[in-house]
User: Which sequence fits this backbone?
């Protein structure tokens, strides 16, 4: 691989490398964040149009876009906490990018406001089956106004507005109601029993308060580590050691809070779309994808910065090799826990536990499921397993981009089958562009304003001279 010569000097005037992006009209100084902002603007226009066209279907699309960027935040929080908890030196030079992504929890919280407002205003009817005061078939709230849904209302009244009818309905992209997955009377009775047991947890008040707590915790952790790390850049040697110990001291509690909030957020916002279904490993699957995605992002962003000379040799082939190994490992972990979830549910053979997979094996969703098996694991496994690939940065960056695309497809797989038959459309594109564009505009803009390397970390020298042992 060809790369620029890094001699520890800045290209602008030969000044000592402070690991900052030079001001000007370069890709990382302006183009990256401005292009992201433009994409966010395009996404906003598409989202407004999509909301006016079909608010119920757009609710699923917006949740997809929001959860995609949240998994990047989760990944950033995980890596930052883990590096401080273990006091590992190998990832110090890549940590500033992860800290910046983790601090994007603030942006994610702002982007979450329209979603939760839409749910509260009964415009997004994703959780109607279990949210008290909501019912299927509300003509005045964008619901389904056909005769079949009058039966849904009676069913909801009979069971305290917690349950939908024994036949699930959704809308396609054009707003036409469609019927899918009819249940037997036995399955319907089992469904109602499960919902009764879940009623103390699945209620609108607990759901809303919990969401606020989750975001406050993520913002607090993300900003604490990001701001403390920036402060360390300018600290004296004695203060630098004190700040390192401070960040390490809080890492254990941060890890516990992070693990719990990620798990229950995954339950609340995605698993509860199919409220009678449950999987104790669902949060672990979301975590595995989040961890894989942060290493993929670090590779994509880091290699680009390295090739342009912005990080000198502080990030080099040795570091990218480690990042590639971690990305590969969490990709395999994602495959393992995803297969375990399916295998255990298949082995038990309990009908009400199979509903989630049944929806993802109908029509075009079957092809999507197969594509994830192949594209998220089989192909990248054979491509990335080689040590040679992890040390050839062009090939490694390609693999990271591929896995990021597959990760986005995985989040889509979690959310959109609950909306009905497969119909990837402008609503999904708009929501993804809005959330992703706004998030990365913040990330890229922030990277351009601060040193790209934690210059005050006492382990920096050791990290820069890090070499593979094999």
Assistant:
């Amino acid at each position: 691989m060809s790369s620029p010569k890094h001699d520890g000097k800045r290209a602008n005037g030969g000044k000592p490398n402070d690991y900052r992006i030079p001001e000007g009209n370069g890709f990382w100084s302006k183009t990256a964040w401005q292009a992201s902002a433009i994409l966010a603007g395009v996404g906003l226009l598409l989202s407004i149009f999509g909301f006016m066209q079909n608010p119920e279907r757009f609710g699923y699309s917006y949740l997809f876009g929001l959860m995609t960027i949240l998994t990047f935040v989760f990944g950033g929080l995980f890596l930052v906490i883990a590096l401080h908890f273990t006091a590992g030196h190998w990832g110090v030079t890549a940590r500033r990018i992860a800290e910046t992504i983790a601090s994007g929890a603030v942006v994610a919280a702002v982007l979450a406001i329209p979603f939760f407002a839409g749910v509260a205003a009964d415009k997004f009817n994703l959780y109607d089956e279990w949210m008290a005061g909501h019912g299927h078939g509300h003509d005045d709230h964008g619901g389904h106004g056909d005769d079949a849904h009058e039966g849904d209302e009676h069913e909801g009244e009979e069971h305290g507005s917690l349950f939908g009818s024994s036949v699930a309905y959704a809308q396609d992209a054009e707003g036409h109601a469609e019927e899918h997955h009819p249940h037997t009377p036995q399955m319907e009775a089992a469904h109602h029993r499960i919902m009764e047991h879940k009623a103390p947890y699945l209620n609108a008040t607990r759901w809303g308060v919990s969401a606020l707590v989750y975001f406050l915790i993520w913002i607090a952790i993300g900003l604490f580590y990001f701001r403390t790390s920036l402060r360390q850049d300018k600290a004296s040697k004695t203060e630098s050691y004190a700040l390192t110990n401070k960040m390490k001291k809080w890492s254990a509690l941060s890890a516990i809070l992070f693990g719990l909030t990620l798990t229950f957020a995954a339950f609340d916002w995605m698993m509860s779309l199919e409220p009678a279904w449950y999987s104790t490993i669902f949060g672990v699957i979301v975590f595995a994808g989040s961890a894989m995605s942060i290493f993929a992002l670090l590779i994509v962003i880091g290699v680009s910065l390295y090739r342009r000379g912005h990080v000198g040799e502080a990030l080099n082939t040795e570091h990218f090799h480690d990042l590639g190994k971690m990305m590969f490992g969490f990709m395999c972990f994602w495959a393992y826990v995803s297969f375990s979830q399916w295998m255990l549910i298949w082995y038990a053979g309990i009908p009400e536990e199979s509903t989630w997979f049944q929806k993802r094996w109908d029509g075009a969703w079957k092809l999507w499921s197969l594509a994830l098996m192949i594209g998220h694991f089989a192909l990248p496994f054979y491509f990335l397993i080689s040590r040679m690939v992890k040390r050839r940065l062009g090939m490694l960056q390609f693999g990271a981009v591929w896995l990021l695309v597959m990760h986005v497809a995985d989040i889509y797989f979690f959310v959109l089958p609950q909306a009905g038959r497969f119909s990837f459309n402008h609503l999904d594109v708009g929501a993804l562009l809005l959330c992703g564009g706004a998030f990365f505009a913040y990330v890229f803009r922030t990277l351009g304003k601060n040193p790209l390397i934690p210059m005050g970390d006492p382990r920096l020298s050791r990290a820069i001279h890090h070499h593979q042992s094999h």
